[in-house]
Amino acid sequence: MVNKRKWGIWVAVLLVIAFFTSMYYYAELGNNSYTSVTMFIYVEKKEHYIGPGHLKMWVIGSNSSDSSQNKLKYKVMIKDSRIYNLLEEGKEYFVTLEGVKKKNQSEYTYTFGQLGIPGGTQLTGEGIIE
Q1: What is the pLDDT, as a whole number, of residue 45?
Q2: What is the Cα 94 distance to its own chain's centre?
Q3: Does domain 33-124 have CATH number 2.40.50.140?
Q4: What is the pLDDT of residue 111?
Q5: Which of 26, 42, 97, 103 could anchor a disulfide with 37, C-beta 3.0 to 4.6 Å?
Q6: Is 127 helix (H, G, I), strand (E, B) or coil?
Q7: Which pLDDT score, from 0 to 100, does residue 127 have?
Q8: Membrane-spanning residues where (predicted)?
């Protein structure tokens, strides 16, 4: 009887810990806002910053279909240097941007979800090297 009671107490403690852990993660993740934009982006600027032990890369562009004077500019952060090296200023690309805005940020942080060259071929999968 005592063993069952001890076992029951341990299960209750584990359930309480699991509950509070899940509430913490829900509160942290629940405060983020997410967005997704698909468009033809015109790359206006391509910039990078090399700091001690890290590299930041980004492009600034706008929707090439928007002809208004006050176009919305997007700063798109790039994680992979190969993507950064392929992009060129003054060119247009078909993209899907994924944005995340954390609770203490005023603007979205955008990254590339998909990137394509208009009229280009899009391959998927892994190539075989022989």
Answers
A1: 96
A2: 17
A3: yes
A4: 93
A5: 97
A6: coil
A7: 67
A8: 7-27
CA distances from 122 to 33, 94, 114, 119, 130 (A): 30, 11, 11, 9, 22
Separation CA 26–CA 111 (nearest Å): 23
The string of DSSP letters for 54-114 reads: EEEEEEEEEETT--SSSPPEEEEEES-HHHHHH--TT-EEEEEEEEEE-TT-SS-EEEEEE
Closest by alpha carbon to 32, among 92, 101, 79?
Answer: 101
Give which of 44, 62, 113 is closest to 83, Cα–Cα.
113
Q: Tens place of pLDDT for every residue, the chain, 130 residues?
A: 567 777 888 888 888 888 777 777 766 666 788 899 999 999 999 999 999 989 999 999 999 988 888 889 999 999 999 899 999 999 999 999 999 988 788 899 999 988 887 777 666 677 666 6
Every domain of the chain and the residues it spans: 1-30, 33-124
Instruction: Extract the tokens encoding 9.
Output: 């107490």
Do residues 81 and 54 touch, judged by C-beta distance below 8 A? Answer: no
Burial class (CB in 10 A: 0-12, 13-18, 19+), 125: exposed
